[in-house]
Amino acid sequence: MTFVEANTGEAVVFWICAILSVAGAIGLITSRKAVHSALWMALTMINLAVLYIANSAPFLGMVQIIVYTGAVMMLFLFVLMVVGVDASDSLIETIKGQRWAAIFLGLTLTVVLVWGIGSALAGVPAVGLEAANREDGGNVQGIAHLIFTDYLIVFEVTSALLITAAMGAMVLAHREHWQPKPTQAELSQARFLGAGHPGNLPGPGTFARHNAVDTPGLLPDGTPAEVSIPGALKARGDVQPVDIEDVHAIEEADSL
Amino acid sequence: MNAVVEAVRAVEETPWVMPTLDYKLLAPILIILGAGVVSVLFEALLPRAARRPAQLVLVFVSLVAALVSIIALQGSRSLSGRGALVVDGPGLIMQGTIVIIAILGAMLMAERGLDPSGDAFAARASALPGSEDERQFTARGYFQTEIWPFFLFAVGGMLLFPVANDLLMMFVALEVMSLPLYLLTGMARRRRLLSQEAALKYFVLGAFSSAFFLYGAALLYGYTGTISFPGIAAAVSSTTGQTGLLLVAVALLGAGLLFKIGAAPFHQWTPDVYQGAPTPLTGFMAAAVKIAAFGALLRLFYVALGGMRWDWAPMLWVVAILTMLIGSVIALTQSDIKRMIAYSSIAQAGFILVGVVAATPAGLAGALFYLIAYAFTTIGIFAIIMMVRDENGEATHLSKWAGLGRRSPFVATIFAVFMLSLAGIPLTSGFIGKFSVFTAAIAADDTWLVIVAVIASLIAAFFYLRVVVLMFFTEATDETAEVAVPSVFTTVALAAGATVTVLLGIYPQPLLDLIINAGVFVR
Is B160 left (phi over 0), alpha (psi -120 to 50) or beta? Predict the structure, then answer.
């Protein structure tokens, strides 16, 4: 059995990228926050891309960076940011013992895979890579050759998948209006007819001790103006309480 | 620099051989996928009122055209698309059945006479459940006609799945089939939260199982150096020594495909998805996905891995036994008719696996017959579940079915025939199906497996007959559901399901001849 030793440079690249990508993968599943998970995953993706390039697959490596790290992961982050970065999964088990069972089965699968792959591939040299890449004058040309000849139908059928995905996103997420959108004139009429506040809403922090967005502005009698706080903060319960002493002081000043 | 120039020149001197596509062999798939694209254009370009009629005409015309082109291919045994697809007898039979089931399924999906507010799909899938938007869209008679392009793409994937002849094609077909189904599952008109939960579960678990399939495919490629099934078969038969990688690959590929057919222990999604999905879609999915996925499973294990039957058969034995027993026993405890049918479908998958594991031409023929019989019965069952309603929509709780036979004897009798067929009582298609699968297994020396299967059938017969007893030998109460009068669509689908179920039970010979004449897979 011939065993081709990887040269030193390749070995160094492998050990650095392998350790970083596994670390990224562990970080991905152990992070409590979704954004952290996404960043860990980007780390894994980039390191895998480096490994692909080091293994004579430059096209795959570049696609990995452009599509996965560039497009998919960033889209993922956008979604997380828009939906809310605080959304973290509850870790309460609905089925008792589920976590231990999952860990046990996961480890079993890992052992089986490591045994299967390890026993089969130990000492197997990588042959034919150079020849495969040379055949059509390069890696990218070689892939193009395969996609447009042997795997033409698969390539074409993939378009059905993309159409479905795009239209599925539209159907599930695109909000239609069942009535015409109100014009600005109609909106202002509605405001003055009593449906809402006619003018600008009072700003937060006015006459209060702080001018932060979570501090309600104070009315002339010292009571907090509820409308000055954004609804999202109220829903989260993140509104600063008004110091009752201030209210009393204003009342006293009025009574004099 | 010179080396690059020379390499480029060398490439230019030997131009690529462009693949010759035999469009006749590809016609059924191209018609359906092409119709899917046209259907998307209809959504984009037609005014709202014109969409439904246009879509219905397109769907039925393209399905009938696909069926005609499949029949025209009868007797073909050849590769297509440089070996990515294979057109052979069993593949064509499965494609033909899928298209017929799709026609019946489309009729159920087009039904608008049962629900007072419209069809079985949400007026707008994007409106939040319970919101004012949802009420307004429903009251104003909006319809989500995008279900039709999704449906066509799903059918296209199903047609590709059983004729895929390499691992890459099989994976892409699996995804093309599944993705639209995940979406449609979440679009029920009533009980929308249940439906959306089902869609999410189906999607997440489906993606998980696809990853297993892909991992297995990568390992099998690593072992054999090819992804084409004939190539894999050659590599497997000439293998010596270390087979660890091969076994792991087969296990992972098997997990991916067994998930799709709903075999234990990969069956967990089935009850939730069957219950949550819009009922016409459940009927179509239960029947057609099973055929497509069994087709792929049969081709993978018979053609690519046929040379190592003794390695994969024990795995499928265990899966078949688990599937039959878990499906039958848990179905006993169900109180919702859709969940009960879901567990019944798990048990039925186990019975079909008994034929698959035989790995003989008789096993293949038995499994094919069973699949066809099961598909027509299932479509009929879900047509009736659509019709049995109360003021809140479909009355799926079993207590509402008590005394249905007194109130609507005709419909209840048809349902009873379906139940008897699933139980495998003689003179129904289910009996012939079980008989042919079990005899194939006995011929392959799996007698003990057949004994287990018979015991599971007896357990299963109990809950099938329980429904019959509930319908006919219980007094109707105020709780008993009404049977709504359907339009011509559901009536035709139900009539077709019932006719085939009885006909295949009394006179199965033409279909058996057709299947036996179709022969075996092209290797």
Answer: alpha
Residues of the domain holding B214 = 19-518
Domain count, chain B: 1
Collapsed DSSP state (helix, strand, coil) of residue A5? coil
- Look at residue B513 and give its three-state secondary structure: helix
Residues of chain A contacting B222 with CB distance shorter than 8 Å = 117, 120-121
Testing the interface with B: which of A150, A153, A156 to mutate, by most B Cβ within 10 A? A153
Residue B57 lies in a domain: yes
C-alpha B374/C-alpha B431 separation (Å) is 11
- Tokens found for residue B486: 């359907």
Distance to chain A for B72, nearest Cα, Å: 22
**Amino acid residing at B359:** A
pLDDT at residue B284, rounded to an integer = 96
β pairing state of B85-87 and B393-394: unpaired
pLDDT band at A2 (very low <50, low <70, confident <90, very high): very low
Helix axes B147-160, A152-173, angle to 10 degrees: 150
Q: What is the DSSP letter of A182?
A: P
Instruction: Give the tens place of pLDDT for each residue, A3-61.
Output: 445 578 888 999 999 999 999 999 998 888 788 888 999 999 999 999 999 888 899 99
User: How far are the Cα atoms of B438, B511, B517 from residue B365, in angstroms, in the given order?
Assistant: 11, 10, 10
A215-224, B129-138, B272-281: range with lowest mean pLDDT: A215-224
Q: What percent of chain B lies above the pLDDT cut of 70?
A: 97
Tens-place pLDDT, residues B510-522? 999 999 988 888 8
> Cβ(B185)–Cβ(B195) under 8 Å?
yes
Class of residue B482 by CB neighbours under 10 A (exposed 0-12, middle 13-18, buried 19+): middle
B347's tokens = 């048990």
Which CATH topology does A9-84 take? Four Helix Bundle (Hemerythrin (Met), subunit A) (1.20.120)
Q: How far is CA A173 from CA A176, B205, B321, in A?
A: 9, 22, 42
Residue B2 in any domain: the answer is no
Tokens of B366: 């038995």
Residues of B in contact with A171 (CB under 8 A): 125-126, 144, 146, 183, 187
Task: Count how many pairs of residues, chain A against chain B, have C-beta atoms within 8 Å.
Answer: 126
DSSP run (H or E) holding B86:
strand B85-87
From the list B81, B136, B180, which residue is nearest A152 (CB)? B81
Structural domain includes residue B10: no
Q: What's the pLDDT at B12?
A: 61
Q: Are A31 and A37 in contact (CB under 8 A)?
A: yes
| CA–CA dist A204, B96 (Å, integer) | 68
Nearest to B82 by CA among B19, B170, B168: B19
User: Model ipTM?
Assistant: 0.91
User: So where are chain A's domains?
Assistant: 9-84, 132-175, 197-255
